[in-house]
Amino acid sequence: MDGRAILAELPRLRRYARALVGERAAADDLVQDTLERAWSRSGQWRPGSDLRAWLFGIMHNLRIDQLRRPSLDTTALDDQFVEPPARATQSDSIEFAELAAALAALPEEQRAVMLLVALEEMRYEDVAQTLGIPVGTVMSRLARGRERLRRLLDERNNVTPLRVVR
Amino acid sequence: MNPLLPTDADLHAYVDGQLPESRRLQVEALLAADPAVAQRVRTYRDQKRALQEMFAPVLDEPVPETLRAAATPAAARKSVLSRWSLQRLAASLAIAALGGVIGWLGHGRYQQTEMLARATPLPHQAAIAHAVFTPDVRRPVEVTADQEDQLVTWLSKRLGTPVRPPGLGALGYELIGGRLLPGNSGPVAQFMYQEASGQRLTLYVSTERHENRDTAFRFAREGQINVFYWIDGPYGYALSAGIAKEELARIATAVYEQLDDRRP
Question: Does the distance separating the beta carbons of B16 and A156 come in below 8 Å?
Fold first, then answer.
């Protein structure tokens, strides 16, 4: 396994982790855990196979472990935040802050599928392999996720505006 | 089912450029014939593009040195120590943040990046509202409990869904009234109760879907104020008071049971 090849995947791993987890520090922690596990299991990697898919698979499994782990501190703030990455302009039809909030409100399993399809532009079969689920499940999660995101964004845009008090 | 009629999966595959050529004409025919489906497909496509644009800047961020180091095998092992100290640092920062006063939280809301990045979590909102209104001697509520019917009608109308304060008389707390407050994206309601000793507690009811999933009871502490909160369908509830956690838990359970019973 080649350190330089892994280095080249880092920006993509970070992007996906950020979108999945939301918070920057937590996302980078997940990437770091992924790298450490990848090296500790480098014997399992078949040379010539898709390194990126292998790394995403490791990240997915780590994330599942994370979510299963019971939370130790109930006074911790468990609400999930998404930090939209900084950017210069905001001229899109969908406001990023709203999108970030709606994305965070999706069930993680739907969010993961949507992000692999949107950000990584993975084929459905590859998404299925990365997440260890059948293609049919990929399709239903994608469909539910997109529908839910659409409804969430619609609702946010239809909030009654404050009326001016006369 | 008509084998020629495109399925939902076909529509998504069309959006993602993964539709077999043989199905494309059928999807395009459907899109031409059905404006509602065409609109849905456009929305999915917009979503996808927006996600790509929103997270594209991450690709251009400089990769943190710890991650660069972990990408190479020797350093991956060495980094465990620095990772550990980073976690300790993060933990101490988190503790500092938890110990912060409510004023700090209020202040945070006005920092633009924070406002963009996050909606204020339910327990914070509730604790702030509690801290602001319970000390008010002259006008702690907008509508008093002797006009409970009006209060219920008004708040239900403004929240767009029936809300009714639970009765906590058996636990020694009498309703003194309620008020309407701004939430993250719309109105929320606050009911206030008072015990014979003057101790006040507030029930904060939000209809803004917070996480969009139900939660069990959760506990948060904001300064002197303890908060139990839970999400039930579209409703978020938070019960706040400056009383012991166990006592508050008992009341929260009573509130929860009453709200649960009332459901059709």
Answer: no
